[in-house]
Amino acid sequence: MNQKKVVIVGGGFAGINLAQKLSRNKAFHIVLVDKNNYNFFPPLLYQVATGFLEASNISYPFRKFFQDKDNLRFSLGAFQEVFPNEKRIATESGDIYYDYLVFATGTETNYFGMENVRRNAVPMKTVQDALALRNHVLRLKELAVKETDPATRRKLLSIVVAGAGPTGVEVSGMLAEMHKGIFKKDYPELKREEVQIYLVDALPVVLNPMSKKSQDETLAELRGLGIEVLLDHAVKDYDNGIVSFANGKTIKTETLIWTSGVTATALAGLPPEVLGKGKRVLVDHYNRINGFDDIFALGDICFMSSDERFPDGHPQLAQVAIQQARNLAHNLPLWLEGKSPRPFSYKDKGTMAIIGINKAVADLPGLHFKGFIAFFLWLVVHLFSLIRYRNQVKTSYNWLVAFISKDQSLRFILDSKPEKPLH
User: Fold this and answer.
1) CATH value of 4-35+77-108+263-336 in 3.40.140.10, 3.50.50.60, 3.30.450.20, 3.30.1330.60
2) Strand intervals (E) in 53-149
3) Average model confidence (pLDDT) for the chain?
4) Binning pLDDT at 50, 70 and 90, where does residue 245 land?
């Protein structure tokens, strides 16, 4: 059989769903390219960072996932450049030729040109970031225990979370819960009033994409956890252990967690005219990159303005990526058969955010939930979104232990030295 070769760059929500669906059609030979040898679940990174889940709970190796699929292969190596005229991409591990090329590389952290923030803050985009944050926070607790100067202790124990979207809300809420319970038992030498968590954002609201009801309820819950929420506070710099804001205010801290923005990953070799706002690639309603018949872009990296309900592009959410991948998997065989493809239409399934134990908000189509119901819905949705039963079982076990005991035993400092010197 003369199979068509489909090369997918990126193994996140879009890439893995496209590969999985397309592998059922033997007319295609699929090669998934990724700089990591595993898929991971970004919405739960903050639970790895706070020691409630192991990294393996939210990760799964591509090659093990592909073992029973004879038309699906994996290639380890970061994408470098595409050569459309030759139908070829260059990666760290060599060149790969394609019949169809699909970019599903997602986003990277956007520091908005602030070099000190890029150098000194802790991002939350990768498994390595999550583990680095866990090491960093735990190490500072150990240093604070030995510190006798009150001002220095306060600086070691203060945490600033920049970005009041779902990730910022979730990580600040989890840290606040930990300080109320777990850290009080782990570090009896420290006083609760010495610990301060700040959630800051340049916008006047938290959870900007969600309903006003969710925003107001979340703000009240965050403040109830003792988090100081500073809205209309745009970070301007972070240097010498001081977070500076555009309004002139400052906060002294050794920990700035950066969840404030993302930008599409760069795709060398594409003409500049196909790039739109935030470097997102302009695509038609079939996810074909403008000007190309054989190159596609899915998920966070693409900008589709043909959907009348989303003239400014679809939200950069997992559900968009998954639905676009499934639609492309439906369309590629139709093109081979000379049939008309199906245009993409996004079905909004709602948005959720967890704030703490038994505290969450959920905006579903026509419905709003808060408290334990929203918390339970969040758990179920995220649990069944994990890639394998193994991940689901291990994660549900860890959650059950944490829910019953209000604790977890995964607080390990796994590196021997701090990555960055303290200020």
Assistant:
1) 3.50.50.60
2) 59-61, 72-76, 79-83, 88-91, 94-97, 100-103, 107-109, 122-123
3) 92
4) very high
